Amino acid sequence: MTPVTLTVVHDELEADQLCGLLRAEGIACMYKPTSTGGALGLGSSMAAPQEILVEEEDLDRARELLAPAE
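^ that's the sequence the OP posted. Answer follows.
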């Protein structure tokens, strides 16, 4: 199983909410600060952009779930 990037969101709070939605639909999800956020020296990872990762086989379904929210 290979995690792939679904999207990048503004901060950890938004990432946590999005992963909650995906998990409620049975899609495993995790997030991490992007390398861009660290490079900007934003200090806290909570304020840094977050990369949302899902398993490759869940990517299409996750995109479908996000479509109405975008």
